[in-house]
Amino acid sequence: MFSPSQHQLRSREAPLLISHNGYRVVKVSDHFVVKYGRADQVDLLEELNVQQATKVKVPRVYALYNEPESSTNYVVKEYIKGDRQPGYSVGILDP
Asked: Looking at the record's lineage, which domain of life comes first (predicted)?
């Protein structure tokens, strides 16, 4: 499986899709996005719970990992192309 490097994430090589509440989501390929930032382990596990508990199409979670030196958590997820729903408040925001 493709695994983005920290350099790719932090050097702005990967297009920024969302920056919100301390999280960033970057598109690292046509198939994957990475959500990263400081978060509790519970937040990361919730990604898996939603995936397993619903019949609604949600991005598949492929990997969860932590960078202890910076307390940064990463979630590698499926990229699903589509439009955001009107009124959806999370979009591309200035960091």
From this structure: Eukaryota
Of the CA atoms within 13 Å of residue 41, those in its CB half-sphere come to 4
DSSP 84: P
pLDDT digits (tens, 9 = 90+) for 34-45: 888 876 655 667
Helix (H) or strand (E) holding 8, with range, is helix 6-10
Identity (one letter) of the amino acid at 79? Y
CB 61 within 8 A of CB 36: no
Residue indicated by tokens 């439009």? 83
Domains observed in the chain: 6-78 (3.30.200.20)
pLDDT in tens, 63-76: 888 888 888 888 88
Residue with tokens 């050097």: 11
CA 35 to CA 56: how far, in whole Å? 20
